[in-house]
Amino acid sequence: MVSMSQHQFENFTASSLYCQKCQATMPVRERLLLVLPDKEIFDYLCTGCASSVGQREVTAGEKIMAQAVAQRRPRRVPLRTPRR
Ligand SMILES: [Zn+2]
Q: pTM value?
């Protein structure tokens, strides 16, 4: 049964997500689940039952920007096609 006490989404931040097990909006913990060359996947775990209630992908765009600022590493740009 779905209760009528459905909160209006105040600020739908990732710090609280709906948990199916708890059947309530629970605070979640962000956990780095998977690191890929081009993106990172975060897992959101319910603090009540520790089950995964959501995931978030962070593309490398923001990271690349940060890294580019932190350390300028010139890319290897092929100026000439190597000939043998
Ligand atoms: Zn839960």
A: 0.54
